[in-house]
Amino acid sequence: MMATTVEDRASENPLVEGLERLPVHPTALVIFGGTGDLAHRKLLPALYNLAHEGALPERFEMVGVARRDQPHEDFQSMARQSIERFSRRKPDPAVLQGLVSDMRYVPGAFDDDSVYAELGRTLGEFDERAGIELDRIFYLSTAPQFFPVIAGKLGTAGLNRAEKAQTRIVIEKPFGYDLASARRLNDEVLSVFDESQVFRIDHYLGKETVQNLMALRFANALFEPVWNRNFIDNVQITAAEDIGIEGRAGYYEGAGALRDLVQNHMMQLLALLTMEPPVAFEAKRLRDEKLKVLEAIVPPTVSEVSSMAVRAQYGPGVFRGEPVPAYREEEGVAPDSRTETYAALRVHVSNWRWAGVPFYLRTGKRLARKVTEIAVTLKPVPHLAFQSSGSVGVQANQVILTVQPDEGVSVSLGAKIPGPRMRIRPVNMEFRYGTSFVSESPEAYERLILDAMRGDATLFTRNDEIEALWGIIDPILTAWHEDTTTPIPQYEPGSAGPAEADTLLGGDRTWRRL
Ligand code: BG6
User: Fold this and answer.
1) Which of 267, 270, 261 is nearest to 370 (CA)?
2) Count of Cβ atoms closer than 10 Å to residue 25 Cβ
3) Looking at residues 345-350, what average pLDDT do you find?
4) pTM score, two decimals?
């Protein structure tokens, strides 16, 4: 397909750097699981928005692979519908037509050799038509048990390397189920592909606000001097969702909140927040720093888990006026399920910068609202010079980074209440993405697909990093798996989670209001 060039659309907003300015080699993208939910809601709409921005290479081809037997045309119309329904911008008919009209579809089971033979033929045709070898990206958006199968079959079919072009494999989460399975999967994938070809997705890294965390820390002289144990009292990282499991029992029952959000998204936030400044914003340097800080998080022993981690499930109730079932009543969930829909942890980063600072992480489904934020609370001032009435309103400064919604950063300060007396109250200094850049940020998947096509792995997870992440979580999984009798706390839908999570905080600390 020849992608349309879109000068008129390219700089709709001069404050936002156009993605189109980055050169991308001609590419064929193959999506395994091309008819699945992720493709439908995220990947195809992301491709449309890249096409809309003129960010796709001039020669771009796409193939969907999935079990369902259907002709190319049906896949194309499904893609069109997904884009119309889920794209963040209303599709331009010409751009949409240009993108979908050449999409190809290869039906079959992922372990069937003939699928790979057909795929090889299709990719060969693209190369012939283009007169050059296109780069090839194999995007694995399937159930995780197929990841090693597909990687292996691509190898057997000789599709893991091309003579004159690049071949890459993008692997969705979950990458492994625990440390041992993640290692096995790494071994299997790396027996076919070189690590430099492997792009493990954590879509949080593609979020603008997550990258802004690095901008905040390393582009401002203001924060870095206080970003350590001498000034910071504690950090709370929250990833709350208001939705339930949304019909995903098949996946969620075997995963739970710890695997689904903590092991990947939340630990990535923690790593970016606490790592040392990398020498350059570049794949090796950044991932080296993240690895170092992840290795400084000492995993608990199995017997320590009960004092640093809390799990819970949502019970039945009324949410925004509607009756909602308990987790254990959701379709496909065992009535005695012990899978957690809420997890809270206290972890420590044992190095010079962070020794002694507690990091509190919590995530859950069916909580009061959807919010992902990092709250960094500084230590109180060492001495209060105001009379007791003035001192009442003095609170420790906080830096709040909101990843979503209302993306931005706010800093709380103590300020004098106007009037004859010296009375203090906290006020906020705010930066909001929406008002400062007057634009909607691109979706994480747009950035990540583009980076995979450019071969830039900075925002993807490396093999040693993924194993370090699992290493921290593994003892908690083991402890929870082994404990088959302690009742799992139930929390009310629309609440801030179980009261048991308060026990992790210590002192007079409280969780931030949801
Ligand atoms: C996914 C999880 O990785 O992240 C989902 O599997 C979760 O359970 C989702 O809902 C949250 O992503 P976001 O971008 O909406 O915060």
Assistant:
1) 261
2) 15
3) 97
4) 0.93
On whether the CB atoms of residues 76 and 103 are closer than 8 A, the answer is yes
Give Cα 294 distance to the centre of its chain: 17
Assess whether 265 carries a catalytic annotation.
Answer: yes
Mutate to test the pocket of ligand 1, among 265, 366, 443 (most ligand atoms within 8 A of CB): 265
* Residue with CA closest to ligand 1 atom 4: 261
Q: Is 241 in the pocket of ligand 1 (CB under 6 A)?
A: yes
Query: Which residues, listed in sequence order, are joined to residue 114 by a DSSP beta bridge?
Result: none
DSSP H/E element including 37: helix 37-38
**Of 512, 400, 461, which is closest to residue 263 (Cα–Cα)?**
461
Q: Is 233 in the pocket of ligand 1 (CB under 6 A)?
A: no
Ligand 1 contacts CB of residue 443 (under 6 A): no
Query: What gap in Å lies between CA 193 and CA 37, rounded to an integer?
Result: 26
To the nearest whole percent, how much of the chain has pLDDT over 90?
86
Cβ burial of 317 (10 Å; 0-12, 13-18, 19+) is: middle
Tell which atom from ligand 1 comes closest to the C-alpha of 264. 3
- Report CA dihedral (69, 73, 77, 82) to the nearest 10 degrees: 50
- Between helix 267-274 and helix 208-218 the angle, nearest 10°, is 20
Label the pairing between strands 408-416 and 398-404: antiparallel
Q: What is the pLDDT of residues 262-287, one digit of tens each?
A: 999 999 999 999 999 999 999 999 99
Residue 208 Cβ < 6 Å to ligand 1: no
CA of 295 to the centre of ligand 1 (A): 25
HEC string for 88-114:
CCCCCHHHHHHHHCCCEEEECCCCCHH
Residue in the block written with tokens 């500084």: 378
- Position 22 scores a pLDDT of 62
Quick check: CB of 260 below 6 Å from ligand 1? yes
Catalytic residue among 25, 265, 383, 481: 265
- How many whole angstroms from 364 Cα to the centroid of ligand 1? 11
What distance in Å separates the CA atoms of residue 488 and residue 329, rounded to the nearest whole number? 15
What is the atom index within ligand 1 of the atom nearest the CA of 173?
A: 3
Name every residue whose Cβ is closer than 8 Å to that of residue 303 and which is 6 or more positions away in sequence: 479
Q: Whose CA is nearest to atom 13 of ligand 1?
A: 204
